[in-house]
Amino acid sequence: MTDAEWLNLMKKSPQKAHLALIDKYGNLVYAIVISKLRGCAGREDIEDCVSDVFVEVFRSTDKFCESKGSLKSYISTIAKHIAINAFQRITYRQNISMSIEDEGVELPPSADSPENNTQKKLFRERLWEIVESLGEPDTSIIIYQYFYDLPVREISEKVSMTPAAVQKRSIRARERIKKILESENYF
Per the confidence metrics, is the pTM higher than 0.90? Predict the structure, then answer.
């Protein structure tokens, strides 16, 4: 079915046109969504995203113009944008950017006495040593996450890993840091 035929069918029978569109471009949309959500989303999230793509295509059918490009490219663009939004929503929902404090690590008291300032300085130095001793890519992940405050998505690009792998490595690294600090009686 050509784009012009689809537009004519849309005028005659929107329901048949929508079914024809899903039939023809369903696999394409599914492939685009999987490529964007692989590693962070489950099957249900992927299927929801595919459905969202077609809902948006159906809502914005009047915006499609044959002279500006093909229906395939129009649908692909919508699929990419919706998948990227879904990725951001899913990773946010998974609470990717957890802080060390959320994991139960408490910092020393923050009174302004010279003794407390010295303890803080020693703690920070020891913490830095521990982070550096983690080895790659864990050291980079922790530094990007807590010193540069980067989201997991950006960290994953920098260390060439999936966001889910970065999240797991971060959790494990924080657990190792916590065990070391506990063994040295910082808590």
Answer: no
